[in-house]
UniProtKB/TrEMBL annotation:
Keyword Membrane: yes
Protein keywords: Cell membrane, Lipoprotein, Membrane, Palmitate, Signal
Keyword Thylakoid among record annotations: no
InterPro entries on file: Bact_solute-bd_prot1, SBP
Annotated organism of origin: Fervidibacillus halotolerans
Official protein name in the record: Extracellular solute-binding protein
Length: 361
């Protein structure tokens, strides 16, 4: 993935040069600083993702001292999407957008529809996209045209505390599937119920801090993971042959409240039937700190767990599906992606660019 990220970053910079972005950004001054490529990302400077971007920019600038230099601004995404998204939307209103910026997968189509994002297809060499997962390509494609290149793909799995699992009797551990095996939500909930029953009566030290069988990490929503509900839960409907909205993108009646949708959410709700296996008020970092046996977790938690919780031993299982016979997409996927300023193109005349405040006067 590192090689993909590196190549992607360089090709995006090439996109910006190919479509004449250099010198057209209003962030550039009139004293010779116009030969710059301005990039905005949602990752904070001290986050591994932000550090990775900074390294890529430094490497590019060092390798290309005679070419326009790249400046990157990391604008931390805060709760409910404020921070980065607020500043990006303010820049759009002020007609002062950066040359390249990041968008979350579900936001791409709205920005494309508003004419703010430029297409990438015509600037890509043959076969370049083959190095990326179908989900990354699909999320960046709108009406058959490719607009957004994800720099990573995310997913969701069931994580489990290995020390806790090893303390279980064999009749329970025998029900845990292999890491590459499909299983259903009914099977997962049945397993969690047996684990919870055992945890409440055992004196094994692995369960000393036990609080809940399944952590949903809902406390992270208040710290900025506002999309968690939709991201985690929509595939539950998919794997039961349902959806949250009709193909027209507007109609929900008869879709969100369909028999299949209700059945899927009813199965998921079993996690909260008394005695509850999950809690919306669980302790913060419950899985991280040994208070939960299982966790419904995105891949992005792996770095946090390995770097900050070295005493936690964990493994992963596939995300369950509702219908065991379902063969379609049933796990969340996709992630943030790079896009280019759609107002800066070869077709935009210089006078038009000036009206958007994107050239030096």
């Amino acid at each position: 993935m590192g090689k993909i990220k590196n190549n992607l970053f360089f090709i995006l910079i090439t996109f910006s040069k190919a479509v004449g972005l250099i010198g057209c950004n209003s962030n550039s001054s009139s004293d010779g600083d116009s030969d710059k490529i301005i990039i905005w990302t949602q990752a904070s400077e001290d986050h591994p993702e932000g550090q990775m971007f900074a390294e890529r920019v430094k490497k590019y600038n060092e390798m290309n001292p005679d070419k326009p230099q790249v400046e990157i601004e990391n604008i931390t995404r805060a709760g409910a999407g404020s921070g980065y998204i607020d500043k990006l939307n303010a820049a759009i209103t002020a007609k002062d957008m950066p040359d390249i910026f990041t968008l979350d997968g579900p936001d791409v189509s709205a920005y494309v529809d508003a004419g703010l994002v430029g297409e990438l297809d015509s600037y890509m060499s043959e076969g370049f996209k083959e190095g990326f997962t179908p989900a990354m390509i699909d999320q960046g494609t709108v009406d058959g045209t490719f607009y957004a290149m994800g720099y990573q793909d995310s997913g969701v799995v069931i994580m489990y505390n290995e020390d806790m699992i090893n303390a279980l009797p064999e009749d329970i551990t025998s029900e845990i599937p292999s890491s590459d095996a499909d299983w259903t939500w009914d099977e997962f909930i049945d397993l969690a119920r047996k684990v919870d029953d055992f945890a409440k009566k055992t004196d094994d030290p692995a369960f000393d801090d036990y609080e809940v069988a399944v952590s949903l990490l809902l406390t992270d929503i208040t710290s900025g993971a506002y999309e968690t509900g939709t991201y985690y839960l929509t595939p539950l409907l998919w794997s039961n042959g349902a959806n949250i909205v009709a193909e027209d993108g507007v109609t929900v009646d008869g879709v969100l409240n369909s028999e299949e949708s209700i059945d899927a959410l009813t199965q998921y709700a079993k996690l909260f039937e008394e005695p509850a296996l999950a809690s919306a008020s669980e302790s913060e970092k419950a899985f991280h700190t040994g208070k939960a046996v299982f966790s419904i977790s995105g891949f992005w938690y792996i770095n946090e767990l390995t770097n900050n919780y070295p005493n936690l031993h964990f493994r992963t299982l596939r995300y369950p599906k509702m219908d065991k016979d379902y063969n379609g997409l049933y796990t969340p996927s996709g992630s943030w992606a790079f896009v280019r300023n759609g107002l800066e193109t070869d077709e935009v005349k210089k006078t038009d660019r000036r009206s958007y405040g994107m050239v030096n006067k």
